[in-house]
Design a protein that fits this description.
- This protein is mainly α.
- The protein has three helices and no strands.
- Helix 2 packs antiparallel against helix 3.
- The protein is elongated.
- The N and C termini lie far apart (about 50 Å).
């Protein structure tokens, strides 16, 4: 008997989500330390670059959600209606932006570890 996951939606995703990146988030060079030795030489640049990427991902997701909210309407409890059109380019953009937001969360973790080591 093969065990089935409790939540069937937990099986959705890409294979890439199960692996960690071995690339420096600043310069894309291979590293085992999260941030490569070259980039660690300028910690202020690392903090600025990663913080900027995180902010951009968060801002983009908020803007796209506001666009969906304007199109679909707003419920009394503050949640916007889900888009029903699979043809909607904004729906695709929102899903892409949500993935980028998850990547930003991992970048935030890398940044936190880097700051703690200083």
């Amino acid at each position: 008997v093969i065990p089935c996951p409790e939540d069937p939606s937990s099986r959705k995703g890409t294979i890439g989500q199960y692996f960690t990146s071995m690339h420096c988030p600043i310069c894309e060079n291979l590293t085992n330390d999260g941030i490569c030795k070259e980039c660690r030489k300028s910690p202020h640049q690392v903090a600025l670059t990663l913080s900027s990427r995180i902010h951009q991902a968060e801002r983009k997701y908020v803007n796209i959600c506001q666009l969906c909210q304007n199109c679909c309407g707003n419920l009394d409890n503050g949640h916007y209606l889900e888009c029903m059109s699979l043809d909607c380019p904004v729906l695709y953009s929102r899903q892409t932006s949500l993935y980028q937001l998850k990547v930003a969360e991992s970048i935030q973790t890398t940044l936190n570890k880097f700051i703690q080591k200083l």
